[in-house]
Every structure is written in structure tokens, then in C-alpha cells.
Amino acid sequence: MIQTGLIQNAHGDLLTDASYDFYGLRLATCSLDQRIKVWQLDENNTWIVEDDWKAHDAAVSKLSWAHPEFGSIIASSSFDRTVKIWEQAASHSDAAQQSTNVNGSSQTHPGSGPLNSRWVERAVLSDAKGTVRAVEFTPHHFGLKLATISTDNMLRIYECIEQPSLTSWQLVEELDVQSLASGPSPAYLSRAHTVALSTPTQTHATLEGTSGQLTQALQGLQQSTSSAGQSRSGPGNREADGGWCISWCKDKYWGEIIAAGSGTNGIIKIIQINARRSTTLLTLSSTSNTATSTTSGTSNLSTSGPAPTDTTDPRAASTSAPTFAITSVAWAPSCGRSYHLVATGGRDGHVRIWKVKPGSEDMDPENMAEGEGEEAKWTAVSVADFDQHKSAVGRVEWNITGTVLSSAGNDGRVRLWKATSGNVWRPAGSVGVEQMDESTQTESKDVDMDA
User: Fold this and answer.
1) What pLDDT sits at residue 44?
2) What is the pTM of this model?
């Protein structure tokens, strides 16, 4: 039986995200109304508003709780191109303390919302050149870090260098997700020059200060990317059609690895964050349910369908099948498995589950991106592909053991997926968001875990 509850009139506009804290006893929600609300679960299993405040100057897109060992901390991303760090203060008087943004300026932010919110703005991260669509703290064993992705297609990693004040955050990595290559990156795609690439929100990027050869290479890449994007998306707003999402690998052994998707190309890249050189370990394509291993410049296909077209090449995209953006990605907790599970949801209405196998266990995690031969390759195969939503999927999320997947779609339903004893993934029930009569509601809550 699925237990459900209803929070009436949670926000004044469309809800964009909901995130539980580590213990599942508090819930943070955000909305197009620019506000964040924190809810507390009381002894009657009723969600009560604990705090409510105006957080951004535009719609709030995503929320993420830090691990409780760092305190009560929330990061929020917004369409105002900023990420903000919030900390729960000890008292109402703390709500008028100073906070410092990343460029060093100091501002006082008094509490807002009813009766002075107890959540204090500690820092503002404003490096994005487009709307920030996702934010997520790293697993706690890597320290107090977070990742963001925005519509300029840049994945940014920040680290808090001043604890416990939380006022100083350093940008430690900045990667162009769509251009990130495997192995040594070509010079014209290095971090120093990615700012010159045209993106959906930077249509007039400058090429000043670059060499003639570099300028020619960049212009050619921009033209091919632009023509490919037009053929995929057609007329319209690419930001409205695209998807930008991230999810960290929860396993400490393999180092800092993140799954990231950007734009309308329908692919997810498995990226290893490395201080010396971040690389793409694996590319998951929703077009033909294929995975391409790119470690050490090699290619290995694991597929449950026909041979794929290389969707990572913008020039090939114009002749391939139409692609749909991936709007959500979720990396499952490993819980002792010898492989990983990564789930995606897309605008094509599909929920996909990937079985991802790392390279040889004998490989040193610090050097696995530089390994040679078959042992260094990461491989993946699609083990499930569901289209029951029949409309865009906005969110996928795993339970704490990585055994049950939930998905929310524009059909107004939250659906559950669970593997049988034979590791065959099946539907495990659904809940309708709309109000239903008692008999219909009871029927929709029945779960057949043995299906």
C-alpha cells in the first residue's frame, strides 16, 4: 500500500522541486513564485510549514540539502542565474547577519517571509551565463562541495573554503558538458577558451584575443552545432525544449563522478571530476538505448537495440532520428552492488534505467581515466525502458536503497518501478496527483510488488 498525503496550496504558483533532508523529516519546496518553503513532519504525520521566504528574483528551479554533518544547509538554483547558499540560523535575531557573495562584496540580508525567516543567505554564486537549472551537493565524504549546471551548458563545481561561516566558495572546476572530450581535450576545447563558444543563451560570444587558427576552429564548430540544433529542435526556444540535469555517484571508491545532461541532444555523460583533467567515461544515448565508452579514446558499444548513430557528433545529428531532451537523471545508491544503476527521464515520455559497470576493480580510481585497454573502459546497457507516462517526464528519483525508482510526469501521476527476483524491471504502482473519490484512490494505491 502506498501511503500518500496532500499539502493544499503549498505555493502560489507552479511547484518546481521538492527535496527531503537526510532523515526524511523535513521537506524543502520551491516554485515559480520565487519562494522556498521548509516543511516539518509532526507527530501526526502532517506536514507543517516551518519557514517560508522569498529566495530569488526569478523562479527557483532546484533545491539540494547538504549532509547534516555540515549543519542545516540548503542550496537553491534559479532562473536569475544565481545559486544561493542558505543556513538555518539558531535564532530569529540571526536572520539579519551578513552574507558575502563570491565576488567579495558584503551585504546584509534581513529575514523575509512571515515573522523573519530563520534561514539566512550565506553566499551567492553568480558565475552562470544562463539560467541555472540544477544544483546538487556532492556526497559528504568529498567535503562540502556542490555542482551546478546552467543553460550555457557549463557544469561548475564549487567548494566551500571557509567553514563554518559558509561565506566563501571557490569555483574549482568549469566544464562545457557538450564539448567535453574523452582523454586529453583538444586545445580549442580547453577551459581557457570555452567562454568563446556560442550557447543557447550566449548567441553573440566574442572571439577577441584568440589566434586565427583558433578562431577558425571555433567558428566552424559553432556553425555545425547551430545547424544541428536547428534540425533537431526546429523553430522555437531551445531553453524551453532542452533539459539540464545532474546527479552524483554515491559510491566513494570511484572518486568524484557525476552524470550530466544538457541541451536537446538526448544524451547523458558520465564524467569523472579530476583536478588534473576531467574526462567523459561514458555516454548514454536515449536515441537508440546505447552507451558509448570513451575512456582512453576507445569506443565500446553496449546496446539492447540496433547499432547507433554517433549522437555526440553535431554534424551527424542532422541525419539521425529526432532527439528529445533528458530532463532528469538519478544515480542510485550502490548498496554493495558490483554495478551502478542510473535512471533518466525525458521529454519523449520515457523512463530508462541503465546498468553501468565500472572498469576493472584492479584499476587505481585516481588513474582509471588514463588506463589502457579493455580494463579501463566503463560499459553500460539499458535494462528498462518505460513509456507509460505518455508525456514528458519531469523527475526521476531512487529510494534510499536504490531498489525502487519513482518518476513524475506531465500526465499528473507519480509512478513506481521495481525489479523482480530475476532483475526484470516492472511497474510497481502509481499515484494520481489530482483529487479522486475514495474508491478510485484506494485502487490506485494498490501495489503489486510481484508483477
Assistant:
1) 86
2) 0.75
Give the C-alpha separation, 316 to 424, whole Å: 34
pLDDT tens-digit profile of 155-201? Answer: 999 999 988 899 999 999 999 999 887 643 332 233 333 333 333 33
Q: What Cα–Cα distance (Å) separates residue 394 from each residue in 128, 307, 406, 416?
A: 23, 28, 11, 14
Encode pLDDT of 28-52 as tens digits.
999 999 999 999 988 888 899 999 9
What is d(CA 324, CA 326) in angstroms, rounded to the nearest whole number? 7
| Domain locations in the chain as residue ranges | 12-89+117-176, 181-188+239-288+322-360+377-433
Query: How many residues are recorded in the chain?
Result: 451
Proportion of the chain in helix, strand, coil states, percent, rounded to 5: 15, 40, 45
Contact 320, 309 (CB under 8 A): yes
Residue 295 to residue 278: CA distance in whole angstroms: 11
* Amino acid, res. 50: E
Fold for domain 181-188+239-288+322-360+377-433?
Methylamine Dehydrogenase; Chain H (2.130.10)
Percent of the chain with pLDDT over 70: 66
Domain 12-89+117-176 adopts which CATH fold? Methylamine Dehydrogenase; Chain H (2.130.10)
Q: Is 375:301 a contact under the CB 8 Å cutoff?
A: no
Residue 428 phi, psi dihedral angles, 5° rounding: -125, 20
Does this chain's domain 12-89+117-176 share its CATH topology with 181-188+239-288+322-360+377-433?
Answer: yes
pLDDT at 290 over 50: yes
